[in-house]
Amino acid sequence: MDGMSIAEIEARVREVHPVVRAIREQVGRLLVGQRAMVDRLLVGLLTDGHVLLEGVPGLAKTLTVRALASAMDLRFRRIQFTPDLLPADIIGTQVYNPRDASFATHRGPVFAHIVLADEINRAPAKVQSALLEAMQERQVTIGDETHRLPSPFLVLATQNPIEQEGTYPLPEAQADRFMLKVRVGYPTKEEERAILDRAAGPPPAVEPVAGPEDLARCKEALALVRMEGVVADYIVEIVRATRDPSRHAGDLARMVEFGASPRATIALAAGARAMAFLEGRGFVTPDDVKAIGPDVLRHRVLLTYEAEAEGVTVDDVVRRIFEQVRTP
Question: Are residues 258 and 148 both part of a single domain?
């Protein structure tokens, strides 16, 4: 990597970029708008980072995940999280066979390339935590046996931000395992009109245009994308500012209870590289960091009660931090 010029790196990126375009086109056949959400899911796939999608029902979150899995010909499983769900319903269990007095391992739906944890906050913490080992180690322990998960492996979870009755907020340790928390918004007026037109006919089929081998080639090119020292320093300064915001904006000190961990630093660098790759560039700019920054930080910065009482949101704090930290 050190011996390659930017032009050589971008040539490698251009070689595999048709894969990204083909995936976007196939998902776009089924989905209207939501380009930012699709790109964030691609960032997760390219960087092996799990993604939490937050939005009101009806914004095509599940449809998008299913379309992405179809376009990449990846094994897809959907788990509907409910209050009566058990950890064994996710990872699997050992089943006793009385005929020969033996136990057989029954694998749960987590054994897939893309796992959709639908409405993850509807299940209690013990069920949510069943995903911890799978998300962090890419493996699952059932009884006394450890089983590797397929590669690639990605958890995409959804949650409803407005209906809190009967829900269980994600524990901080669980939320931190998600590389990105993406807020999914409403479509524009033009997009909603196009949605109405499409709803009148049968949904178009999504054809597989890529596979695990293509994804591996994209990851190899992504690893070459260059990040200069000044951009790396900028990332570190942003994350450190979430822990001690008084250095840049004194009034934010009373708003932040806990800042982001070093895992956020790693995720911010990986996400910025992926954003540059999706744009077909061989180098990272501060704008890439700013583009992916809110999605990396919004679930890792915990606010004080005072901030919540004043109606200050995490996005407000993160935006202020980006405004106050000097851009290189």
Answer: no
The Cα 132–Cα 175 span in angstroms is: 10
User: pLDDT tens digit string along 69-114?
Assistant: 888 888 999 999 888 888 888 988 878 777 787 777 788 899 999 9
Q: Which of 193, 224, 255 is the last residue of a domain?
A: 224
Distance CA 211, CA 264 (A): 29
Give the containing element (helix H, strand E) for 299. none
Per residue in 241-288, pLDDT tens? 998 887 776 778 888 888 898 999 999 999 999 999 999 999 999 999
Read off the pLDDT band of 166 (50, 70, 90): low
At 1 the pLDDT is: 47
Q: What is the CB neighbour count within 10 angstroms for residue 224? A: 16
Contacts of 226 (CB under 8 A, 6+ apart): 1, 6, 9, 282, 283, 284
Q: In the listed set 168, 200, 224, which residue is the last one of a domain according to the structure?
A: 224
Q: In the prediction, which pLDDT does 188 show? A: 82
Output the domain CATH number for residue 280: 1.10.8.80
Q: How far is CA 169 from CA 158, 174, 178, 179, in A?
A: 12, 10, 14, 17
Same domain, 273 and 157: no
Q: How many CB atoms lie within 10 A of CB 143?
A: 10
């009034």: which residue's tokens? 251
Instruction: Judge if 187 and 308 occupy the same domain.
Output: no
The beta strands (E) that lie in 101-237 are given as 102-107, 114-118, 139-142, 145-148, 154-159, 178-183
- The pLDDT confidence band at residue 44, using thresholds 50, 70 and 90, is very high
Full domain range(s) for residue 179: 1-224
What's the number of domains the chain is made of? 2
